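In line with agreed milestones, the collection of sequences with tokenised folds has grown. A representative record is reproduced below.
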Amino acid sequence: MAASDWYRNRDWTPAIAAAFDAKLRRARDKQSYLRIQASYLAERKPEVALGLIERYFELGDHFDMAQAYVDRSTALLAQGDVEGALAALGQALQRERERPNLRTQAWSDYAMLIVGDGRQERFDEVLSVLDENKDLITFPVDKFVWHAARALIFEARGAMIEAKTAAEAALRLADVTFSGYRDHPHAGLVRDRYPTIRARLDRLARAGV
């Protein structure tokens, strides 16, 4: 067993939980181990992940708190709690404003969740978050999300020229096969992600304006 396996379990049984707790009692940085383990279970075992994250927060302030809120949102979304997931992402974004030294994908998850769910009453919030993070995004998938969210918001508001332009920009990024980083050439690519959003963008890009 690798040294890190004890806090990267992809399943959870009473035996695994007991072994994890035994290791955790001897660990120094308990919060990091709780959060990392929660992230591995957020989609598969959301109720377990949420319990681990609560234990994380009970230990007080920690450097990766923004990511803990993102992991909480993933678990809540796996349970079908969209409002709870959005609230957790909002907490992550606020934490990043207060402690900008550690950024997460909260902005991207927040934008895609709201736009994909058609929550037009929150579109202004999304545009604000996109503008806030514009200069921080680097990978093709992040740039794709930035343009895709704007395209769908513009479409919903009847600004079809702007929607078509943003959709075309997003689709160009979806086709990128090199990250721009020599040491990590395939990192951060869109690949087969966001198929439903891409279909909507393709219709927008082909539409006459």
